[in-house]
Amino acid sequence: MTIKVHERLLLTGAAGGLGKVLRERLKANCEVLRLTDLADLGPAQPGEELVQADLADAAAVHAMVEGVQAIVHLGGVSVEAPWGPILQANIVGAYNLYEAARKQGARRVVFASSNHVTGFYRQDETINASHPPRPDGLYGLSKAFGEDLARLYFDRYGIETACVRIGSSFTEPKDRRMLATWLSYDDLHRLVTACLTTPVLGHSIIFGMSDNAVTWWDNSQARHVGYRPQDSSDRFRDAVYARTPQPDLGDPAVQYQGGAFVRTGPLE
């Protein structure tokens, strides 16, 4: 049973892949779910409010945050991209969001960070939230900025944030790397729910993964969040091995946790 601790919840990036997944599930977490994206969201369903807004537009962001108690922030550029779009959506947009939360009184944020904040750690290492960021590109760098921004707004203004370093959230793992990074859709919702409902969140970093046997990430420093994954990539292991070739251990995408992101060249 999901406890509704917030009357009005804001979901940014609601037209994106994971936004669509959470659009239906988060209705159980609140009385009113406000959805926002720059893209079209379609018609409003019962219990929904729709707002089309650009994260780089400070006035629009301040308006969309009005009246919400908590924010699930998925909005922004979600892949490696040229610097211009990342700067506007992920850096200026994140600043606008936290300023709006401060001024409008929203006290808790679930920030969709990324495993690409630590993509240049090796796949034969296990890391936790205390390890320094090692972003694997401009996208990962922007998410590292978002985590630091969240820390500032907690230390200075008391806005609590869960920085969720999402792994690979799909219906099933697509390759051998995802056997370590996979996060089921149901576990994604369990994780977001835990972040929204834990009594004291503070500024927390938590790796977004299911209960996979193979993992590079240690969530022991986030036990206070109360996230208990119930799914695992293990049931897909045989099928993934059968359809994928033996990994080339000289390939940087196999050596490092960020996978193919570590070998993406400059984007113009």
Q: What's the shape?
A: globular
Strand order of the largest sheet: 3-2-1-4-5-6-7
Number of strands: 7
Give the N-terminus to C-terminus distance in angstroms: 47 Å
CATH superfamily label: NAD(P)-binding Rossmann-like Domain
Rg over alpha carbons: 18 Å
On the 0-100 scale, what is the average pLDDT?
A: 96
Unreliable segments (pLDDT under 50, ≥5 consecutive)? none
The third-level CATH topology is Rossmann fold
Question: What would the keywords be for this entry?
Answer:
single chain; alpha/beta; Rossmann fold; seven-stranded parallel beta sheet; 8 helices
Describe the model.
- The protein has helices at residues 17-25, 58-65, 83-104, 138-157, 178-181, 185-197, 237-243, 252-255; strands at 6-12, 30-37, 48-52, 70-73, 108-114, 160-166, 203-208.
- By secondary structure, the protein is an alpha/beta fold.
- It has a single domain (6-263), classed as 3-Layer(aba) Sandwich (Rossmann fold), CATH 3.40.50.
- The protein has a seven-stranded parallel beta sheet, sandwiched between helices.
